[in-house]
Design goal:
With about 200 residues, the protein is mainly alpha-helical. It is about 55% helix and about 5% strand. It has helices spanning about 5-15, 25-35, 40-50, 55-70, 70-85, 90-100, 105-115, 115-125, 150-160, 160-165, and strands at about 140-145, 170-175, 190-195. Helix 2 runs antiparallel to helix 3 (about 40-50) and helix 5 (about 70-85) packs antiparallel against helix 6 (about 90-100). The two termini are about 35 Å apart.
């Protein structure tokens, strides 16, 4: 809802109710950064980092706070320590990959980055349960291409749709609504859907 000032107030109340829990402070710091209050955000983050993590979520949030402050080595150490306690936590593995990407350690980062799909599946919001395409021939098949992350990624995705459309019988593309006007002139075998649309059979 982008009501960041109200979020800060709510997190302040959460801190009063749970003063030994790190996550409310870290989430408050994120809201403060959006509001441009960097100095206070850093102080709140440091307060949170002084608290022992009580859950995998706490560890993931602490690593995110360090990542946001550019303290990558410390963020990586927090992720590693958290994964020793919660080795199957997807958020921790994903956050670790983001730190490694920022550090330029790409080969180490990519396997963990794939855990974003597991995080989506945990929410129950995945758009398709069809098998993942791994590059095999698409002749006579339908390919479902979903959005990922922000509008910029969606715009970049549009460049490759004509190439994919030539390889398959039908191409179903899930896009952010603001990008739908950019699909004019796409190949006839492309079908576009967005938030609230039923997913066509595929």
């Amino acid at each position: 809802l982008r009501r960041h000032s109200e979020a800060v107030t709510a997190f302040e109340q959460a801190v009063q109710l749970a003063p030994r829990t790190a996550s409310p402070r870290i989430l408050m710091a994120l809201a403060l950064r959006v509001l441009g209050q960097q100095e206070r955000a850093n102080q709140v983050s440091n307060d949170a980092l002084a608290l022992p993590p009580e859950s995998a979520s706490d560890s993931a949030n602490q690593a995110q706070a360090l990542h946001d402050m550019g303290r990558c080595e410390e963020a990586l150490a927090v992720c590693d320590a958290g994964l020793e306690r919660w080795p199957q936590d997807f958020q921790l593995q994903f956050n670790r990959s983001l730190v490694l990407l920022l550090m330029g350690r790409l080969q180490e980062a990519w396997p963990g980055y794939e855990h974003r799909w597991s995080m989506i599946a945990q929410t129950g919001k995945e758009h398709s349960r069809a098998p993942l395409w791994t590059g095999e021939p698409l002749t006579g098949k339908t390919l479902y291409l979903t959005r990922e992350q922000g509008l910029g990624d969606g715009i970049q995705q549009l460049r490759f749709l004509p190439i994919l459309a030539r390889q398959c019988q039908k191409l179903i593309v899930f896009l952010h609504k603001p990008l739908l006007p950019l699909t004019a002139g796409m190949p006839a075998n492309c079908q576009f859907v967005s938030e609230g649309d039923p997913l066509p059979a595929h």
